[in-house]
Design goal:
Length: 94
């Protein structure tokens, strides 16, 4: 899908590509921890029915990578600080 318009500098074209399913699931996992919510967000991004996206979301593993940040100190030089975030335990409702 692309859109073309004319400017005083000539014609401009914008190419729009929908995200892949993996990209949509990754983006949804950054927004919410709830798997059902991730499936809804990914389905909305892809424009697919929820029933097609839900099994793929359930197959993905939850990966929590520590955030690494380099802090520069004038006296000691650069140091690497690792910040780990622990997810809260959630009660299962059956």
């Amino acid at each position: 899908m692309s859109t073309t318009w004319n400017t005083k500098f000539g014609s401009r074209r914008l190419k729009v590509d929908l995200p892949t399913l993996e990209e949509a699931i990754f983006a949804a996992s950054g927004i919410t921890d709830d798997r059902e919510g991730q499936a809804e967000i990914a389905a909305a991004l892809m424009g697919l029915p929820l029933d097609e996206v839900r099994p793929q979301v359930m197959k993905t593993k939850i990966v929590v990578e520590p955030v690494r940040q380099i802090i520069e100190s004038p006296r000691r030089g650069p140091r690497v600080v690792v910040v780990e975030q622990k997810s809260a335990r959630r009660k299962r409702v059956l």
